[in-house]
């Protein structure tokens, strides 16, 4: 068995979010970790191999491409099989912010996330830990990487639970800075125009194009209310042909010119 572990910081009750340690393990049949009422939280990524995780009365089998989660207060035991043993990266973290992230980003009583294939992300975490001498800088960078993993797992869960109309809606929202193209939308979703229009209209009561227009106007409202961007900059950000056309479209939908809307919301 081979293990390379680097401690980043020491556990402290005063730390909102801290990185405890990072490492890499090549496991054999002797590898076995067992904890009762665990005092750590960790992500472990399986680069290759097969093994078993027993945690809170669940028996799971993490394998290549999977992430497993160790939670605070859990009783757990995990071990690699003799043949085709685990090669894994791991990162452990602590603090009340970490606990909130587990509870808010991830489904309850879920410890195994299949087919994530984040080897590059975990390899990058390992490289950050071992290629920088400043521990505070390492901890700052690794905190960002942990948040990215939480976001990945949360977004993937949302995608798995979305129905087709929701996926169309999300696709439209992700491309508000581009001109609307039903052809591109159909190509991306791999369905016909009629099917996409019918499915979307049935759930949301409007065509994809009408939703695109209203979503752009709502985005413009956010810019006008919450930023100091000029009207010309907002027009460009939302891919209107020019400021005059943006003002025309905005007033058509809201009854206000962009300038009137901004003045009204900041009164």
TL;DR?
This protein has helices at residues 96-105, 119-130, 135-161, 164-173, 182-189, 193-204, 208-226, 231-237, 243-254, 258-265; strands at 2-7, 18-26, 32-35, 41-48, 51-55, 58-60, 67-70, 76-80, 87-94, 112-113. The protein is an alpha+beta fold and 267 residues long.
Outline the fold blueprint.
Elements: E1 2-7, E2 18-26, E3 32-35, E4 41-48, E5 51-55, E6 58-60, E7 67-70, E8 76-80, E9 87-94, H1 96-105, E10 112-113, H2 119-130, H3 135-161, H4 164-173, H5 182-189, H6 193-204, H7 208-226, H8 231-237, H9 243-254, H10 258-265
Antiparallel strand pairs: 1-2, 2-9, 3-8, 4-7, 4-9, 5-6, 5-8, 7-10
Helix pairs in contact: 2-3, 4-6, 4-7, 7-10
Structure report:
With 267 residues, the protein is of the alpha+beta class. Helices cover 47% and strands 20% of the residues. The protein has ten helices and ten strands. It has helices spanning 96-105, 119-130, 135-161, 164-173, 182-189, 193-204, 208-226, 231-237, 243-254, 258-265, and strands at residues 2-7, 18-26, 32-35, 41-48, 51-55, 58-60, 67-70, 76-80, 87-94, 112-113. The protein has a six-stranded antiparallel sheet. It has a four-stranded antiparallel sheet with strand order 3-8-5-6, with no helix packed on it. Strand 5 and strand 6 form a beta hairpin. Helix 2 (119-130) runs antiparallel to helix 3, helix 4 crosses helix 6 (193-204) and helix 7 crosses helix 10 (258-265). It is elongated.
């Amino acid at each position: 068995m081979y293990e390379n572990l680097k401690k980043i910081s020491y556990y402290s009750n005063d730390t909102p979010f801290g990185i405890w340690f990072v490492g890499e393990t090549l496991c054999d049949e002797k590898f076995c970790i067992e904890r009762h009422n665990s005092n750590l939280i960790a992500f472990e990524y399986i680069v290759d191999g097969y093994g078993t995780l027993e945690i809170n009365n669940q028996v799971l089998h993490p394998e290549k491409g999977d992430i497993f989660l160790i939670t605070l207060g859990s009783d757990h035991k995990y071990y690699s099989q003799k043949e085709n043993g685990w090669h894994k990266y791991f990162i452990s973290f602590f603090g009340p912010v970490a606990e909130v992230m587990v509870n808010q980003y991830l489904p309850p009583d879920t410890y195994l996330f299949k087919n994530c294939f984040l080897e590059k992300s975990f390899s990058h975490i390992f490289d950050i830990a071992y290629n920088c001498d400043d521990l505070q800088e390492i901890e700052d960078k690794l905190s960002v990487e942990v948040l990215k993993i939480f976001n990945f797992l949360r977004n993937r869960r949302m995608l798995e639970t979305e129905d087709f109309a929701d996926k169309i809606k999300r696709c439209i929202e992700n491309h508000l800075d581009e001109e609307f193209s039903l052809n591109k939308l159909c190509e991306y979703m791999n369905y016909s125009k009629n099917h996409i229009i019918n499915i979307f209209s049935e759930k949301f009561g409007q065509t994809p194009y009408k939703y695109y227009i209203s979503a752009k106007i709502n985005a413009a409202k956010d810019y006008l209310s919450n930023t100091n961007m000029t009207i010309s900059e907002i027009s460009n950000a939302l891919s209107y042909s020019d400021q005059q056309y943006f003002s025309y479209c905005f007033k058509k939908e809201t009854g206000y010119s962009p300038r009137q809307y901004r003045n009204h919301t900041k009164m």
